[in-house]
């Protein structure tokens, strides 16, 4: 099966969203942990590294999942491949 330009554009849009969200995940998970000692400012009354380890990263993970689902549904609708919604 030969891929059309529409297929390639759809795939490119999906890859761009996924790459962006994986980059955010990498920064939240590894970069903040790696530079925890250098990130020694207070955030909501707690040291930033402690806050990110205890709550901040979990909140960001939930937001990533929510944004991923919303974005993928929007891209599917844009390219006409959305699943039919059942009542």
Q: Uncertain segments of ≥5 residues (pLDDT<50)?
A: none
Order of strands side by side in the largest beta sheet? Answer: 1-2
Helix fraction, binned, reads over 70%
Strand content: under 5%
C-alpha-based Rg, rounded: 18 Å
**Class of secondary structure makeup:** mainly alpha
- The helix/strand series, from N terminus to C terminus, equals HEEH
Number of strands: 2
Please summarize the sheet with the most strands: 2 strands, antiparallel
Oligomer: single chain
Mean pLDDT across all amino acids: 87
How many domains? 1
What best-fitting shape do the alpha-carbon axes yield?
A: elongated
Question: How far apart are the termini?
Answer: 34 Å
DSSP helical segment count: 2
Secondary-structure blueprint of this entry?
Layout: H1 5-34, E1 42-43, E2 46-47, H2 48-79
Antiparallel strand pairs: 1-2
Describe the structure.
By secondary structure, the chain is mainly α. It has one domain (5-79). Helices cover 71% and strands 5% of the residues. It has 2 helices and 2 strands. It has a two-stranded antiparallel ribbon. A hairpin with a 2-residue loop joins strand 1 and strand 2 (46-47). Helix 1 (5-34) runs antiparallel to helix 2. The longest helix is centred in the C-terminal third of the chain and has 32 residues, at 48-79. It is elongated and about 55 Å long. The mean pLDDT is 87.
Give me some keywords for this one.
2 helices, two-stranded antiparallel sheet, 71% helix, mainly alpha, 87 residues, single chain
Summarize this, please?
This protein is mainly alpha-helical and 87 residues long. It has two helices and two strands, in the order αββα.
């Amino acid at each position: 099966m030969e891929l059309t330009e529409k297929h390639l554009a759809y795939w490119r849009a999906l890859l761009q969203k996924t790459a962006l969200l994986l980059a955010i995940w990498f920064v939240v998970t590894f970069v903040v942990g790696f530079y925890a000692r250098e990130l020694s400012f207070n955030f909501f009354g707690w040291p930033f590294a402690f806050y990110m380890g205890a709550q901040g990263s979990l909140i960001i993970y939930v937001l990533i999942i929510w944004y991923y689902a919303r974005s993928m549904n929007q891209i599917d609708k844009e390219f006409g491949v959305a699943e039919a919604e059942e009542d």
